[in-house]
């Protein structure tokens, strides 16, 4: 089938945007990717590729290389405020990985995708205006450039500028789950060797991990917040994080000491995106911009890979007819996205304990489970909902 509407602008060179560019080119489209950053982002925190996303990676011919770049995290340990080990397990069980799931650094996955993608790139720029006509979309860029494309796809994350321009303000679609998350690199003063350590306090959880080939470590902070808004600016965010963890035990003060010098500091709300529709005329949304499941779901990367594959495939199957292609994309993806979104709130309840009593009970249960002969079966039941959600779509051959 001959494609129409072949010139497609993708906003965002993240995992969703790069994967979409790959598959659009494979199906005969001409993708252009605009990215605010000056280049593909390196490093980053670790992410999981699970279930149906592994099939997408295999069909892209990168599964072997993806697995070769696994983080190599060997174990996960939960400690108390004194640093005493409460429970330990292997890294894959701790991370809820089964059946060949791959944990990699986000930057490594970015690089693998970028190297396989034939597209025009507009780095250091962003979309500032969209004007739809019967024949295309006139796009204004921050650089002053104005160009017309057949279709525009917003793959620009939770705080999508494309979504705001085409669908309305963020507050209509972003649902705060009442938690905040911060991640940044720190010196490996704990001497971690491809391992992850978690400390749980009332209303706040901290973990540190090291990966294969990296002398430093990453620290992650996940905590409950009653604040309606996320502080703006790094200084205010650092202050909010320090205040949330004031007086906390274990190695938390020392990890926070590394915050000011971290070049990769990240702070945001734990939130989801809920929308009645993912397209408006010639503009559609992909990945976190359309159906963010939150970092607590552990499924953002997999949703990005699968969503991009389905969107490109359905546009190709429809011959580039954007109305038919966008509608088919949503029919295929919405049940899968919603199933994975359910993981976010459920996982938060396990990851962040509300009270000191809940923390004590959790620590007691973890300690007991570590000594039980049937602990593998117990963990299998914990992991089962993650695997079920990750495989809750039958991928077509486009």
Keywords:
398 residues; alpha/beta; FAD/NAD(P)-binding domain; D-Amino Acid Oxidase, Chain A, domain 2; seven-stranded mixed β-sheet; 14 helices; 18 strands; FAD binding; FAD-dependent oxidoreductase
Report what the structure shows.
The structure is a single chain. The chain is an alpha/beta fold and about 400 residues long. The chain folds into two domains: about 5-70 and about 100-175 and about 270-345, 3-Layer(bba) Sandwich (FAD/NAD(P)-binding domain); about 75-100 and about 175-270 and about 350-390, 2-Layer Sandwich (D-Amino Acid Oxidase, Chain A, domain 2), CATH 3.30.9.30. The protein has helices spanning about 15-25, 50-60, 65-70, 90-95, 105-115, 160-165, 235-245, 250-255, 290, 300-315, 320-340, 345-350, 355-370, 375-390, and strands at about 5-10, 30-35, 45-50, 75-80, 85-90, 100-105, 120-125, 125-130, 135-140, 145-150, 150-155, 175-185, 195-200, 205-210, 215-225, 265-275, 280, 285. The strands form four sheets. Strands 5-4-13-14-15-12-16 form a seven-stranded mixed beta sheet, with helices on both faces. Strands 7-2-1-11-18-17 form a six-stranded mixed beta sheet, with helices on both faces. β9 (about 135-140) and β10 (about 145-150) form a beta hairpin. It is globular and about 65 Å long.
Short description:
Helices cover 37% and strands 25% of the residues. By secondary structure, it is an alpha/beta fold.
Tell me, briefly, the overall form: globular
Q: Which regions are unreliable across 5 or more consecutive residues at pLDDT < 50?
A: none
- Please indicate the count of domains: 2
CATH superfamily of the largest domain: FAD/NAD(P)-binding domain
- The helix/strand class is alpha/beta
User: Can you identify the CATH class of the largest domain?
Assistant: Alpha Beta
How many β strands by DSSP? 18
CATH architecture of the largest domain: 3-Layer(bba) Sandwich
What fraction of the residues are assigned to beta strands by DSSP? 25-35%
Strand order of the largest sheet: 5-4-13-14-15-12-16
GO molecular function: FAD binding
Protein name: FAD-dependent oxidoreductase
Transmembrane segments: 6-24
Keywords: Membrane, Transmembrane, Transmembrane helix
